[in-house]
């Protein structure tokens, strides 16, 4: 999941972004072009690639009779954005004589969303649009034939917004295998860049106070931490989240000369929450698989140094803990950003997309503060191409799906089509009401109106509805030197294409094994090491490894998952090679 990168770069960058991403997705496409003529298979959908009367009418095309009023039931996760109802009202006003839709959008807390969506679809409740992703329910629902095949809505003159925003190359790498064994579009792919760009936000005013210039290297960063400890003893040098994300692990690993996995034929694959596999590939054969919680012997045949555990990062995190760079008990820190913006910490890590929100909150908490940004990944700072840390399957992470329980697939797709018909439509949902919530800066940037309370302003998580490589605006506050990094992460040449690009693991055959609660316990047990809270990391991890290996049920489930994964991956590789 990615945060809001609000931007459309200068024309050259915008074009480069769209063309490079689409070109990247066109190389090595997966299977045939199912969008060329397959009818959409929603329960009540009549749309096809050649268009239909229903599709034409519901799309609100010029000269068509206004369709009957209809309310769309939409499920999104997280908290409802401030002023969201006003944006919806503006949409309904603009489209009353064309789409004639009302939107009933239900926001569900993230902890409850997955189960709530499952229950609603199992009960056959009317859900017209649902946010989903392979890291949530999507693969399982596709395997159960619960989502509508959307092929017919793309490359379709009746949906010009979809034609404009979703080229064939982009769609090809975001297809999934259906119950017929063929690749289809089962969700609207939502993405801007192929990777996030984490930065460490720090206090430039404090660095100046210490006689330091801007942070440009890892050595500068640790020197800054040392100065904080020496001069502001009540301030945390680097505040980290209690879930381990955007923390010390990333800061350290991204600045180490790590061995390159793919050069050894090793590829990582996320199978489910808390379950990651490393596969050793040789042509179309899976030579070995190691899973979260697996026996160390499963990696014995991997090329060195990947055949042995490496706990050095955990040891360095503990050193940071002992020096005081991070807190003694970071597990209790629920709001790292709030701690930083209140002036209680000298730095923190988040995505660069959150620049405006972080800056606004820091100014509110410490009016005299000045925000600095340090790009965390050394290979990104050096603009290495291809970048060994940027492995991509050229898939996006998030999708909008149409459940087969919906009787309104055409009308739902007409709504999504409207969002992508032009920049103004798109900007309404991504940025809010122009002139009230935001103002354009040229053709490719935006700013907030003078005097606006940004903490109460409309902020929408675009990864759930609006992200697309053709519609990107950058904040006017993005420094010029960071624009070069945006260009870098938009460039296909910056990425290594995964050997598993196009593969989607079907969890259904081993869903019970993947649901083993011990996988979540492993994540909880290793979190303490990511937070630097274990005095002797290597010895502690060896004890955990022995505990996992002695868990017979866990090892049995791991063996079943590995066997199923090997079968599916080898079938995929055989299909890719045409054998």
From TrEMBL:
InterPro entries: Bact_solute-bd_prot1. It comes from the Bacteria. Gene3D superfamilies: Periplasmic binding protein-like II. Residues 1-23 form the signal peptide. Residues 35-63 have a biased composition (Low complexity). Residues 32-65 are annotated as: Disordered. Keywords: Signal. This is ABC transporter substrate-binding protein.
């Amino acid at each position: 999941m990615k945060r809001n990168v609000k931007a459309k770069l200068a024309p050259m960058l915008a074009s480069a972004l769209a063309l490079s991403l689409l070109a990247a997705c066109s190389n090595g496409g997966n299977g045939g072009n199912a969008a060329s003529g397959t009818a959409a298979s929603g329960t009540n959908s009549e749309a096809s690639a050649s268009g239909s009367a229903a599709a034409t009418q519901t799309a609100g095309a010029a000269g068509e009779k206004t369709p009957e009023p209809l309310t769309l039931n939409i499920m999104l996760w997280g908290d409802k954005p401030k002023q969201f109802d006003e944006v919806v009202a503006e949409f309904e006003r603009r489209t009353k004589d064309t789409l004639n839709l009302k939107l009933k959008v239900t926001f569900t807390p993230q902890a409850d969303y997955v189960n709530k969506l499952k229950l609603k679809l199992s009960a056959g409740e009317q859900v017209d649009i649902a946010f989903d992703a392979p890291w949530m329910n999507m693969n399982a629902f596709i395997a159960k034939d619960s989502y509508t095949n959307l092929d017919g809505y793309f490359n379709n003159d009746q949906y010009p917004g979809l034609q404009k925003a979703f080229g064939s190359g982009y769609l090809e790498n975001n297809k999934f295998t259906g119950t017929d064994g063929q690749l289809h579009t089962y969700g609207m792919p939502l993405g801007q860049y192929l990777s996030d760009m984490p930065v460490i936000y720090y206090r430039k005013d404090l660095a100046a106070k210490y006689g330091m210039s801007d942070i440009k290297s890892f050595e500068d960063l640790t020197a800054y931490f040392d100065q904080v400890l020496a001069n502001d003893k009540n301030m945390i040098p680097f505040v980290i989240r209690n879930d381990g994300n955007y923390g010390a692990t990333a800061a350290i690993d991204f600045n180490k000369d790590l061995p390159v996995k793919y050069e050894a034929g090793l590829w990582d694959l996320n199978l489910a929450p808390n379950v990651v596999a490393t596969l050793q590939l040789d042509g179309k054969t899976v030579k070995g698989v190691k899973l979260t919680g697996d026996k160390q012997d499963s990696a014995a045949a991997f090329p060195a140094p990947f055949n042995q555990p490496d706990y050095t990062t955990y040891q360095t995190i503990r050193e940071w803990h002992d020096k005081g760079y991070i807190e003694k008990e970071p597990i209790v820190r629920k709001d790292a950003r709030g701690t930083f913006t209140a002036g209680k910490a000298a730095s923190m890590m988040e995505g660069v997309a959150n620049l405006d929100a972080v800056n606004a909150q820091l100014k509110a908490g410490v009016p005299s503060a000045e925000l600095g940004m340090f790009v965390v990944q050394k290979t990104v700072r050096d603009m290495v191409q291809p970048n060994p840390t940027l492995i991509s399957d050229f898939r996006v992470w998030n999708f909008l799906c149409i459940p087969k329980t919906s009787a309104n697939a055409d009308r739902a797709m007409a709504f999504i089509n409207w969002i992508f018909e032009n920049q103004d439509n798109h900007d309404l949902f991504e940025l809010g009401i122009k002139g009230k919530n935001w103002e354009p800066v040229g053709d490719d940037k935006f700013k907030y109106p003078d005097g606006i309370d940004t903490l109460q302003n409309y902020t929408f998580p675009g990864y759930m509805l609006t992200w697309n490589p053709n519609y990107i605006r950058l904040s006017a506050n993005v420094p010029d030197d960071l624009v070069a990094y945006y260009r870098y992460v938009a460039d296909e040449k910056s990425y290594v294409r995964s050997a598993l690009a196009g593969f989607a693991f079907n969890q259904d055959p081993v869903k019970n094994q993947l649901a083993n609660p011990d996988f979540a316990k492993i994540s909880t047990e290793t979190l303490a090491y990511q937070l630097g809270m274990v005095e002797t990391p290597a010895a502690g991890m060896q004890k955990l490894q022995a505990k996992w290996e002695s868990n017979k049920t866990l090892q049995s489930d791991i063996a079943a998952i590995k066997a199923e994964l090997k079968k599916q991956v080898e079938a995929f590789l055989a299909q890719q090679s045409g054998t």
